[in-house]
Amino acid sequence: MRRSFPFYLCFVLCYLQFASPMQAETVAEKPGVSVDLLEPGSSPRREVRFTPQVGDKQTAVMTVKMDQSINVNGNKMPSQSVPAQKMVMLVEVTEVATNGDISFDYTYTDVDVVDDPNNPSPLAETIRTMLKPMIGATGRGIVSNCGVMQKGEFDIPEGLAPSIKQMLEGMQDSMDKLSSPVPTEAIGMGAKWQVVQKLEVNGMKLTQTSTHEIESIDDNGFQMKIGVSQKADPQEIKNAMLPAGTSMQLDSLTSSGEGSSKILESSLFPISSKVAIETIANMSIVVADQTQKMQTEMKMEMQVNPVSE
Fold first, then answer.
1. What pTM, to 2 d.p., does this model score?
2. pLDDT tens for residues 187-199?
3. For this UniProt entry, which residues form the secretion signal (predicted)?
4. What is the dihedral of CA 308, 136, 31, 242, to 10 degrees?
């Protein structure tokens, strides 16, 4: 096996793990999401509901940074920097149903690599080429007034290479990364709740559990801190980005992290948020009947900030 091959597979896994999934070109029902109130918080309490109006627009930039180390068959591989990736999304509310469900359209207006000019990454142009087809991509979705994604649809251009198409399919659940489910019950200062989501990330099934605690609240919104963990059972990973004749088995995956988010209830998604996650993934890779054991440790930081008009 060539020295560069394990790093390539690790790069694939980064997109499997963090670029997130959904069915393309069809409206997909979202997997089950449970929101359980742990502590209601102090009085006064009130029901939190998202109330954007038809025609409201929100533009946000999502920046993702990753660092990783790779161990193959007990041997640590040379580390390579992965440049940050930036995605700018324009979201517009198109309908508000009588039950409070909010329909919206979204467009990726810009997608690029944020490279360090003083220490350029050799991966920058490769990643930029992979992300470029996303510019101008559109989709639509429905979210409840409690912030739970209900359905999603993503328009993928025809004629793309299978690897690029699957990568774009993976980007669709970036909407899930922006949504912030809240309890149906009345909550106040110090309220805590837990959100459990069953996700399927480009063929890899995992469970994500997040805990939320209100740090400040007023009549318009609140600030909260977030703890998040992910876990996946052993399973085969099938992905078009893998080289021909290669199979990948996920032996284990665990993630943990924390962050914060600022919520304005008149907006569809958070005004700003930041989360840092550390992931350890153990995999078995079979190439030409030879099995390689690979462990990848990743640190990811994701920020969402508003874009000034």
1. 0.85
2. 999 999 999 988 8
3. 1-24
4. -120
